[in-house]
Amino acid sequence: MAAEKQKCMIIGASPILDGRVFQEFDPKDYFVICADGGYETALKLGLVPDLVVGDFDSAQKRPPASLRTLVLPVEKDVTDTMFAALKGLAKGLRDFVLLGCLGGPRFDHSLASIETLLYLRDHGAWGFLADERTKVFLLREEKLRITKLKGATVSVFPYGCPTCTVSYTGLQYPLTRGSLTVGGLLMGVSNSIVSDDAEIKVHSGTALVAVYQP
Q: Are 42 and 11 in contact (CB under 8 A)?
């Protein structure tokens, strides 16, 4: 009997242009939950999810009866992505990657996905957003090591707090215990990775880190 999977992959309805991101994150290593229209992405790429959840307001095709599916009401207090995260947490999973949950035509859904990351952090789990070129992390008094991404762009913002204290190494503009403040003039936007081994450390507060690879 195969070992039970310890990590959770949530596939949302935002477009995934090709399957490259699944080369980095192999669905076979994850308990895969499709949130609403994320099922269509899985279908196009030949992926079979372990669970499908959603109100299917953004889906053109509903899952077949052979797939485990939870149909949600359209009028509810959480997004389909957040509900998928709740199901992963209830299963005891604490390591999440959210694909197809960033970008797309709905900017508010991207913000809601970041809120989902914050909920995961507040409930003892770790998660991040990813697509073909971008990864988004929430760091709370911890470090993020970035390897083999020389030339990528990094932006850092305080999130859910008025200020965060951070240090950077391996970036074009290093920083030692600098304070990033909401609405402040020290903005952590568009830094560049200049080393094969870079690090962002959050000394206090919570930081949102976006890594973009051209």
A: yes
